[in-house]
Amino acid sequence: MKKYSQLFLVAIFCTIFTTLSAQQTNYKENFYNLFINGNVSKWDKLITQFEGDITKRDDASKIELLGYYYGYIGHLIDVKDEDRAEDYIEKALPLANTLIKKYPNNAVLKGYNANIIGFQIAMSPLRAATLGRGMMKNAKASIAAAPNDPIVNILTGNIYFYMPDFLGGNTKQALTQCKKALADFDANDKLRENNWMYLQLMVTTGIILEKLENYTEAKAMYEKALKLYPNYPHVRDKKYPAILKKINKK
């Protein structure tokens, strides 16, 4: 009997230790550090840890997880790993829909939902006919509900930029929303703290400026990103050298 009691106590101790270790994990900081160092490919392990963390069962944590799904799916599409992107969409979309039913007026959730559907369209443009209307409905509802929310401006700005014109895409509108979000981030130290979306926003803004052939301003945006995040390889090794070549050819 004493032996079993000891084993029971050991099991309890292990459970408590695991729970405390999970509570000590600063997920936001860890995701951020991986992102700014160009290691988004390692997000999958951290996402799995987050999913299994018993301290992350509340709705606020679920919304946080949805943000990580959104960021990681975008990365997987960028690196042409569409099979895994589909796997994460199958997790993200039901989660977004469930949360929207519970919080129908949450503009951020609608923005995430629109982007996840946008990812589906990006991987299979033929699905635009069936998915495009719902995507734009959520995007427009999101920005209408919270036009001054920086995250909403990022999410809906993405939709306006990456979607073709026939689905409601509008590059100039995307730039307006991204610049509005940038102003909010630049003015708020707390908003920028361990927030990978700030760096992503600067890069997206630079890409939009390039599409509009405003190369000088795009260069300045990439320089701003490099000043704050000098080790971010995507800007350091790709976007900034490329914009310099474009400017030199003019």
Quick structural overview:
The chain has about 250 residues and is mainly α. It has helices at about 1-25, 25-35, 45-50, 60-80, 80-100, 105-125, 130-145, 150-160, 170-185, 190, 195-210, 215-230, 235-250. The chain has a single domain (about 25-215), classed as Serine Threonine Protein Phosphatase 5, Tetratricopeptide repeat.
Secondary structure layout plus pairing:
Layout: H1 2-24, H2 27-36, H3 43-52, H4 59-78, H5 82-102, H6 107-123, H7 128-145, H8 150-162, H9 171-186, H10 189-192, H11 196-211, H12 215-228, H13 233-249
Can you describe what's shown?
This protein has 250 residues and is mainly α. The chain has a single domain (27-214), classed as Alpha Horseshoe (Serine Threonine Protein Phosphatase 5, Tetratricopeptide repeat). Helix content is 80%, strand content 0%. Helix 4 (59-78) packs antiparallel against helix 5 (82-102), helix 4 (59-78) packs parallel to helix 6 and helix 7 runs antiparallel to helix 8.
Strand content: under 5%
Judging from the principal axes of the Cα atoms, what is the shape?
A: globular
* CATH topology descriptor: Serine Threonine Protein Phosphatase 5, Tetratricopeptide repeat
Please describe the biggest sheet, giving its number of strands, its sense, and whether it closes into a barrel. none
So what's the CATH class? Mainly Alpha
Instruction: Give the tally of structural domains.
Output: 1
Level-2 CATH architecture: Alpha Horseshoe
What structural class do the secondary elements suggest? mainly alpha
Summarize the helix and strand pattern as letters. HHHHHHHHHHHHH
The whole-angstrom Rg is 20 Å
Average pLDDT confidence is 91
Counting DSSP E segments of at least 2 residues, the number of strands comes to 0
Helix tally equals 13
Low-confidence region ranges: 7-11, 13-23
